[in-house]
Each structure stands twice: as structure tokens, then as C-alpha cells.
UniProtKB/TrEMBL annotation:
It comes from Shuttleworthella satelles DSM 14600. This is Glucosamine-6-phosphate deaminase. Its EC number is 3.5.99.6. It catalyses: alpha-D-glucosamine 6-phosphate + H2O = beta-D-fructose 6-phosphate + NH4(+). NCBIfam families: nagB.
């Protein structure tokens, strides 16, 4: 079931999402949070950092698993998702860095890295709350449109649409890696709760098709309709076509 909350704007969306995450951590201080990158969660992380500074949220026992990482970038590269997470959240709160997990884009044996990542999530007891953004083509994590839903962590070829959308974070478009490692839709669906945040008019079509259209691997986020506990927080602009 998908519950939809309309926020006035991106700021309100971020605060509401941060409230749900902080409620999860209050309920279960050692919660496993599934985290996302991209522009969408930046405001949410900023809010969590602010509340942490005020003493309202404690990350000391929290564990995190990130959805995805570019292949060929290591954590010191500013465009890597490990760097992003350190910069926006991990370095600013009292989380134990050993409790933070991002797929290793530099792994020598990528197939093994994928299997190990799935096992890691399982060993942690699964994800309690998975935060997700939404790509323009309906991708979640880096699960791009395709002929079938992919279950576990795997390597993907990024689509031109995703490369174009993410090129803003690189010095040159040619620098955007063509491949990435991502948790599969199965891994995402196994989370106990899923929180999707979307803002902006440019995502309106993806929101409509994902949550009000047929469930199809051509629009990976549409599978979220089959999960029992999804909260979508979207701003007015992103819900414009719904
Ligand atoms: C990237 C990430 C996704 C993210 C999506 C949307 O490709 N791999 O996890 O949700 O883009 O990003 P943004 O929030 O910047 O629009």
C-alpha cells in the first residue's frame, strides 16, 4: 500500500521525511537505515544533522546500507556516493563509520561484491526503513528500465537519461561512469518500510506513471505499489499530474 503525503515544497518534504527517519530511530535506536543519494535527500540529511546537533537524534547505534555506487570511483572521489554520504551525513553525526555501508565500486571481483552486499544486508537483519529518490525514467537506486525486475545486488549499464541527469555532478559529461552497482528491486522490496521522496515538476510524469500506472520493469519504481508499507512524500509540483 502506498500512502501519499503532499508537501508544499521541497523544504517541507525534507522535514517530513526527516521526521519519519527520526521516529524510526527513536523506536529502534539500532535501526538499519537504507539510504539514497542524489539531490532529493540532501535537505532531509541537512535536517537530521541539525536535529542531531540539538541532541534530538542519536546515531550511535544506527546502521546504514546505501543503495548504489558508481563502478570505478573510490570513496575519495567527490562524485562517488561514499563521498556524498560522508559529506552530507556521516561526518556530521555520531554514527560509527564501521556501521555505514556503501557498495564498493572499486572491488576487484564485482560479482562477489554483489553477493557479499546481499549477505551483509541479510546479516544485519534486513532494512527497517529504506529511503528512495526517483529517477526521471522511474529508476530506483540504479535499477534502470528493462525487461525484467532484477532481484539482488547487480551491475547495471546506466541509461543516457541517467548519465545526462547526473552529469551535473561531474566536471565533464565524459567523466560520468557508464556502469554502477546497485541493490536490486528485490533487495529494496524486502525493506520493512519504504519512504520515497520526490520534488519538482520534472518528476511529475515519473510519479504519476510509477504510482498510478501498471506495474512494469519498464518503470522500476512501479513495483513499489506491491509493497505493504510505502510512504510517498512529494511536493505539489511533483504531484501535479496525479
Ligand atoms: C541517481 C541515484 C538514485 C536517485 C536518482 C534521482 O541516479 N542513483 O538513487 O534517486 O538519481 O536523483 P535526484 O534526487 O538527484 O533527482
Amino acid at each position: 500500500m502506498v500512502r501519499i503525503y503532499q508537501a508544499e515544497d521541497e523544504g517541507q518534504m525534507s522535514r517530513q521525511a526527516a521526521n519519519l527517519i527520526s521516529a524510526q530511530v527513536i523506536l529502534k535506536p539500532d535501526a538499519v537505515l537504507g539510504l539514497a543519494t542524489g539531490s532529493s535527500p540532501i535537505g532531509t540529511y541537512r535536517q537530521l544533522v541539525e536535529w542531531h546537533r540539538k541532541g534530538d537524534i542519536d546515531f550511535s547505534e544506527v546502521k546504514t546500507v546505501n543503495l548504489d555506487e558508481y563502478l570505478g570511483l573510490d570513496g575519495s572521489s567527490p562524485a562517488s556516493y561514499r563521498f556524498f554520504m560522508n559529506e552530507h551525513l556521516f561526518d556530521k553525526v555520531n554514527i560509527d563509520v564501521n556501521h555505514t555501508h556503501v557498495p564498493n565500486g572499486m572491488a576487484e571481483d564485482i560479482d562477489r561484491e554483489c553477493r557479499d552486499y546481499d549477505r551483509l544486508v541479510q546479516d544485519l537483519g534486513g532494512v527497517d526503513l529504506q529511503l528512495l529518490g526517483l529517477g526521471h525514467n522511474g529508476h530506483i537506486g540504479f535499477n534502470e528500465p528493462g525487461d525484467a525486475f532484477e532481484n539482488g545486488t547487480h551491475v547495471v549499464e546506466l541509461t543516457e537519461s541517467t548519465i545526462n541527469a547526473n552529469a551535473r555532478l561531474f566536471a565533464r559529461r565524459e567523466d560520468v561512469p557508464r556502469r554502477a552497482i546497485t541493490m536490486g528491486v528485490g533487495s529494496i522490496l524486502r525493506a520493512k518500510k519504504i519512504l520515497v521522496i520526490v520534488s519538482g515538476e520534472d518528476k511529475a510524469r515519473a510519479v504519476r506513471d510509477a504510482f498510478f500506472g501498471p506495474v512494469t520493469p519498464q518503470l522500476p519504481a512501479s513495483i513499489l505499489q506491491l509493497h505493504r508499507d510505502v510512504v510517498l512524500i512529494a511536493d505539489r509540483a511533483a504531484l501535479r499530474l496525479c
